Amino acid sequence: MKKESLTVDKKDHYYFRNVIGVSGTEFLWGFGTPVMFESTFIQLFLRNLGASSFLVGLVPTFFFAGLSVFALFAGYFTSHLPRKRTVVILTHLYSGIIPLIFGLLLFFMGQVTLIIWIFFISYAFFSISIGFTAPIWQNYLVRIFSEKKAFSGISFMMISQSIAKLVSSFLVAKIVSRYSFSTASCGVIFTVVGMVFMAGAFMFLLTKEIADENEISIRHPSFLTHFRHSLAEVVKNRNFLYFLGSDLELFAVINIISFYANYATEYCGIEQAVAAGWFVASNYSGAIIINILLGWIGLFKLKNKYIFSRIISLSAIIILVLWQSLWAFLLVSFLLGCSRSIRMLAYPPAVKKLSGLADATNYFSVAPILTLPLSAGISLMNGRFLDYFAAWGAFSYKLMFMGMALLVVISLFFIIKTDFSD
């Protein structure tokens, strides 16, 4: 008990140093995030190249597939390491190289079909890199902060990221309004994104990692042995499985973000520059406010944070179905940003708490593979649905949005069943 208390004291001693380090990383990554995932830019970029709704739906499918499958390898190669900082830096660097290369290639490609093919190849590798990066990064965050200060530390980090996202969204809107989605302008955007991602990796050098005294490192002789052990450990934790079921809301929200910009520009008279910039700006404004209220100030216990998130998501979907004006889309973007931010803020501490382990890398690694059929399948289903019922126009989108509302309701049931022992 005394050793654990000493470890907590050490972590709290380096609290501000670690906040500065991870906030610096996320500030730089925040400039690129509005372009690479969970935004409107890529969807509009693909539609301008003539891509179908099915191809647009492949973007989150690729992302979740890479995140799910390769997270397992991240757990296998790093769960036994007593220190994680070096591997966190290397995975962040690799994630930056891919958009950098794709951006440079855009300057030499003129054929639309070739651009679409190269994009999906690049995005597949990017998704793989995120699969390696995410569980290691999430586990690193809850390693360098004590449980008492994890929420405030992560909230400062997310506020930093959201401010950068907000600035970036205005810059993207400015570029799109002036140059549209020209190959050259998109090449510049993707190249800069790669550069800031790589620069952000080095900010982790400012952080100080303190290993937990009760941490046990086990190196399994083979990947399959590691996978079976990790899977068995997670599956027997029924409470954690209830928690994973609540991620239906995450998949619903990401699918709405993936398609609602096209719905707005194609059927509701919203300009593309507005969708690429102002929608994203509203989204990240919501994220900033949520991180201040629920993270920094500390409103609500952990379970209530998740319940609040689902109420916000349902409200956003109702507005999206009933109204098609600019203010409605901006409000929806704001609410979706609030919902996504709650999940990003609460997920790492929740996983560590529910796992009961000092090193929860295996939980972070196995969780995405268990939800892969839903995370990837829902996106494919929605893309195919919108293509098949394209003749229905805006009504097909509304039906899809209502289907996502049903998923949010189901996720609410699972989160109520989860015991956080707050």
What are the secondary-structure elements, in order, as H or E? Answer: HHHHHHHHHHHHHHHHH
- Report the total helices: 17
Oligomer description: single chain
Write out the CATH superfamily name. MFS general substrate transporter like domains
Query: If classified by CATH, what would the architecture be?
Result: Up-down Bundle
CATH topology: Growth Hormone, Chain: A
Which class best fits the helix and strand makeup?
Answer: mainly alpha
Question: How is this structure best described in words?
Answer:
- The chain is an all-alpha fold and 422 residues long.
- It has a single domain (9-205, 224-417), classed as Growth Hormone, Chain: A.
- It contains 17 helices and no strands.
- The chain is globular, with a radius of gyration of 21 Å.
- The mean pLDDT is 85.
Set out the fold topology.
Layout: H1 2-13, H2 15-36, H3 41-48, H4 53-78, H5 85-106, H6 112-144, H7 150-179, H8 183-201, H9 223-235, H10 238-245, H11 248-267, H12 272-296, H13 302-322, H14 326-355, H15 361-370, H16 372-388, H17 394-417
Compact summary:
By secondary structure, the protein is mainly alpha-helical. Helices cover 81% and strands 0% of the residues. The chain has one domain: Growth Hormone, Chain: A (Up-down Bundle), CATH 1.20.1250.
Task: List its traits.
single chain; 422 residues; mainly alpha; Growth Hormone, Chain: A; 0% strand
